[in-house]
Amino acid sequence: MTAKRFKSDAFEAIHSAASGLRKAKVIDTKTMREYEDLCLEEPPHFEAKDIVLIRKAAKVSQPIFALYLNTSTSTVQKWESGQKHPSGMAARLLQVVKKHGLEVLT
């Protein structure tokens, strides 16, 4: 399971309190989802052109880029054509590569 990323320490404390209330059945699942939306950081969103720019800045081909990101060349091609969008861990890895370069993954 991926660790939850909170917007701040304060939001983490609010989420923790809400989780306790949920376990005690004081708040319902719908309300807990509202706390999740409020407190948790959204994964980054990348458009096709963003992914192309990140890969080209790294000066690698699609197959090499896919190897670094532990995905398939086909997936990278779909991201770059806009047929799919990276989510979850892939989006986080792209965020890291954009900020620190591909070398950080070696």
TrEMBL record:
InterPro entries: Cro/C1-type_HTH, HTH-type_reg/antitoxin, Lambda_DNA-bd_dom_sf. It comes from the Bacteria. SUPFAM superfamilies: lambda repressor-like DNA-binding domains. PROSITE patterns: HTH_CROC1. Signal peptide: none annotated. Keywords: DNA-binding, Transcription, Transcription regulation. The keyword Transcription applies. Residues 51-87 form the HTH cro/C1-type domain. PANTHER family: ANTITOXIN HIGA-2 (PTHR36511:SF3), MERR FAMILY BACTERIAL REGULATORY PROTEIN (PTHR36511). This is HTH cro/C1-type domain-containing protein. It comes from Cupriavidus pinatubonensis.
